[in-house]
């Protein structure tokens, strides 16, 4: 599957500007790294509730899973009041939603780490430039 993703991203890269090529290459790298480090839900024998593929809108999918989780929790409360003996199925569904949310969030961790590192390096560069300017600035006593 990773080969097909890389081929489809590689085909798109040839037609785009430098910035867009860089963004697609980063997306490809993220997918490759995540596939190597994070086992898929299928490998964990968990049913995947969000769509598969390289063009997934993470925010949309997380919001959807969050809304679904809220709905199931409200339904669980209703079931506990009206039919307490039938709560087990709803609890299993809530567990499945949590596993999918957890997996989706973990798949974003490499991107989050990269963005955090870029931010830290930009701050360090800014501080170093300021220190050089302070040293080069003439001082009058």
Structural account:
This protein is mostly helical and 141 residues long. Helices cover 75% and strands 0% of the residues. The chain has 5 helices and no strands. Helix 3 runs antiparallel to helix 4. The longest helix is centred in the last third of the chain and has 28 residues. The N and C termini lie far apart (68 Å). The relative contact order is 0.09.
- Tally of domains: 3
Query: Total helix count?
Result: 5
The span between the termini is 68 Å
Secondary-structure-derived class? mainly alpha
Gyration radius, in Å: 23 Å
Largest sheet: none
β content, as a range?
Answer: under 5%
Family: Belongs to the Mediator complex subunit 7 family.
Protein name: Mediator of RNA polymerase II transcription subunit 7
GO biological process, one term: regulation of transcription by RNA polymerase II
Subunit structure: Component of the Mediator complex.
